[in-house]
Amino acid sequence: MSGHHHHHVSGRNLFITVILNIIITLSQIVGGVFSGSLALLSDAMHNFSDVLALLIAYVANRLAEKPRTKEYTFGLKRAEILAALFNSLILVGIGIFLIVEAAHKLFHPEPIESSWVIWLGILSIVLNTASVLLIKEDSHENINIKAAYLHLLTDVMTSVAVVIGGILMAFWKVYWVDPLISILIALYLMKSAVSLAKESATILMQFAPQSVDIDKIVHLIESEPEIDNVHHIHIWQLDDKNVFFEAHVDFKDDLPLSKCMKILDKLEEKLQKSGISHVTLQCEYQRNDSKEKVIP
Q1: Global pTM?
Q2: Are residues 77 and 203 in contact, defined by beta-carbon separation less than 8 angstroms?
Q3: What are phi and psi of 294, to 5 degrees?
Q4: What residues contact 293, with CB distance under 8 A and at least 6 apart?
Q5: If you write DSSP's letter for every residue of 53-106 in order, what string do you get?
Q6: Is 214-284 in CATH node 3.60.15.10?
Q7: Helix, strand or coil for residue 7?
Q8: Which of 61, 206, 221, 284 lies most in the core, judged by the most C-beta atoms within 10 Å?
Q9: Is 271 exposed, middle or buried (0-12, 13-18, 19+ CB in 10 A)?
Q10: Beta-strand (E) ranges in the chain?
Q11: What is the pLDDT along the chain (296 residues), one digit of tens a residue?
Q12: Strand, helix or coil at 46?
């Protein structure tokens, strides 16, 4: 049985990123209200979603590092997955709200103070780029930070769109561009939220991870000369890194326990090389049970 080292997210970088995003969000809300720009408010909501994602990531990461106890034999690693799911559902809600508002404005465009839109868009580009660079390192190791990192990256893109919209409105007075950009930002927000929700839900529903090929695992176990078959397989993910595997293993001969253990140790090592972090194998000999690979 092997433990899996949990990556410790840099608290300082995360904290700075949260502060930067709160500054962007508040300034864009104020700017959106004063200028009448829905695109700025959409961008503010997009940035607010980052604040949420980053805060949730930070808290969940701390929870996940708490030691296991008799009450929590798995620890609190699933906190991160629950957080990611919760965050993604909030984003879908925000996206729907923005689209409804923008659709109304598309048919009734109003003049907009475009200088607010341009300058606050530029501020958002600068601060979001700084945020992206701050948490880039942690994003490889952690589903929540990865989600936040992707949000921040798309924020840079959406802020570029906002600035372009501001320039179009300043020079050509095409005010319908504002709700149109708002709708595009909202759709983008929802697309990333839905894929995050799916990823989180598959872990919570204990689906077999796509990274592991069950047929390959079966072949690996059954290729041991002493083993007759492997059956009653369960494979699931605890969080975005730890994969658990359990199965019953039938031996061809009635071997002493010490010999079985040697074979199991060898198998465990092979399975860990295939990306499984926690292996539980049950030795059997001529046991009258179902030999189905996966019990229906």
Answers
A1: 0.81
A2: no
A3: -120, 125
A4: 214, 218, 230, 231, 233
A5: HHHHHHHHHHHHTSPP-SS-TTTTTHHHHHHHHHHHHHHHHHHHHHHHHHHHHH
A6: no
A7: coil
A8: 61
A9: buried
A10: 227-237, 243-251, 278-284
A11: 344 444 566 778 888 999 999 999 999 999 999 999 999 999 998 888 888 888 887 887 788 788 999 999 988 888 888 988 988 898 899 899 999 999 999 999 999 999 999 999 999 999 999 999 999 988 887 777 887 888 788 889 899 999 999 999 999 999 999 999 999 989 988 998 898 899 999 999 999 998 899 999 999 999 999 999 999 999 999 988 899 999 999 999 999 999 999 999 999 999 999 999 999 999 999 999 999 999 88
A12: helix
Q: Which CATH architecture has domain 11-204?
A: Up-down Bundle (1.20)
Backbone angles phi, psi at 121, to 5 degrees: -65, -45
Residue intervals of the chain classified under CATH 3.30.70.1350 are 214-284
